[in-house]
Amino acid sequence: MTSARAKKSPAPIIGRTAIVAGNGSLPVAVAASLRKQGANPLIVTIKGEADPELYAGEHAEISIVELGGLMRILKAENITNVVLAGGIRHRPEFSAALKPGNGNLVALYRFMRAFRLGDDGLLRAVISTIESYGFRVLGAHEVVPDILAPAPGCITRKKPTQEGRENIEAARKAATLIGSLDIGQAAIAVGRRVVALEGVEGTDAMLQRVADLREAKRINRKGGVLVKCAKPQQEVRADLPAIGVSTVENAVKAGLSGIAVEAGRTLILSYEDTLAAANAAGLFIQTFEQEKS
């Protein structure tokens, strides 16, 4: 095992790029990669979500429902490409979307109608709306290709045992099923049995639930595996599943033995730091390829 991997050079991006930044470290990584390429990205921070670091450079701020304001900003700054990066902790209220200036009636109709379709439907509607104004929506992995989980294999010193592999398979099937229902992207299996499914609360909250179950002695068996994979119908330009240092730390608190993620369709944030944290904790990180349906 080695943490080294072939460096992929991002394809040249023509025109100026805007990063619509939610929470987490992904928008920071995308901005850093574009600047290394000599670009001058515009950071459009989502109020109450974006990392304070993103306010240091050239930026604009919007609320999540300001579709009209976003389009005006993109046009005024001569933006060609848009990257949607980072998570959203709070879903907006319908009443906020109806305030003057938050978008034209067609955009608002698409946006509000998408609320009934779950997270994936909402993302597709937002992307469709942005593209209808003539902008090109890119996935974060198109700007930072090294952020994608590498080809199937174990990327840490520790490798999964036979039970670990069986836990991976059990959790993978469960995560794929809830993904097809647009519920979540992750599951945890302990002792070859699925003990937790990811809901709207997210992966870290699910890991905390497992830690609480262990403390309450509802889960007695040691070990277990967190599995994350893209939804079968995943819009890959936004909301790909991701892990990072905090995922490793929370997996340790939950008493797990390892983490498994879908190769090529999961983001590993702060790759080297995440591997170092897993190696220091004695956890494995395994990448896998989804079965063809």
UniProtKB/TrEMBL annotation:
Keyword Disulfide bond applies: no
Segment forming the signal sequence: none
Domain LpxI N-terminal: 17-147
UniProt keywords, alphabetically: Hydrolase
A GO molecular function held by the record: hydrolase activity
Residues covered by the LpxI C-terminal domain: 152-285
EC number: 3.6.1.54
Record PANTHER family: BLL4848 PROTEIN, LPXI FAMILY PROTEIN
Name of this chain's protein: DUF1009 family protein
Gene source species: Phyllobacterium ifriqiyense
